[in-house]
Q: What sequence folds into this?
C-alpha cells in the first residue's frame, strides 16, 4: 500500500511513462483484480499506438504530468483511506482526463473546435 502512495508522484528525473506504468501496475496487483490488470495492459497498448502518440509532446508536458500526478494522488489517498467509493470516483475522473487526451490526439482539429 505504501508503494502506491509513493508511486502517485513522478520523481525528479524519472520517466513519466515509467512512473505511470508503475502506479497503475501496483494498483492492479494490490486489487487482485485480473480484469483491472488486463484492462490496464490494453490501455497501455492503445497509448503506444502511433496514431495516439502522433501529436503527443516528447518529452511529456510538465503541466500534464503534474495534473496526472494530482489525479494519481487522489486515487492513492482514497485507497490508503480504504474508501472504495472515493477511489472509484477518483479513478473515473482520471480515466476521463486520459480519454480526453486520447481523443484530442486522434482528432486535434475537432478538439480545437
A:
Amino acid at each position: 500500500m505504501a508503494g502506491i502512495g509513493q508511486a502517485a508522484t513522478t520523481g525528479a528525473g524519472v520517466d513519466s511513462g515509467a512512473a505511470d506504468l508503475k502506479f497503475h501496475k501496483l494498483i492492479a496487483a494490490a486489487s487482485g483484480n485480473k480484469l483491472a490488470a488486463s484492462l490496464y495492459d490494453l490501455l497501455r497498448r492503445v497509448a503506444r499506438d502511433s496514431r495516439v502518440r502522433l501529436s503527443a509532446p516528447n518529452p511529456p508536458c510538465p503541466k500534464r504530468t503534474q495534473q496526472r500526478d494530482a489525479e494519481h494522488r487522489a486515487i492513492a489517498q482514497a485507497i490508503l483511506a480504504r474508501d472504495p467509493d472515493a477511489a472509484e470516483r477518483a479513478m473515473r475522473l482520471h480515466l476521463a482526463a486520459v480519454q480526453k487526451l486520447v481523443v484530442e490526439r486522434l482528432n486535434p482539429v475537432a478538439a480545437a473546435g
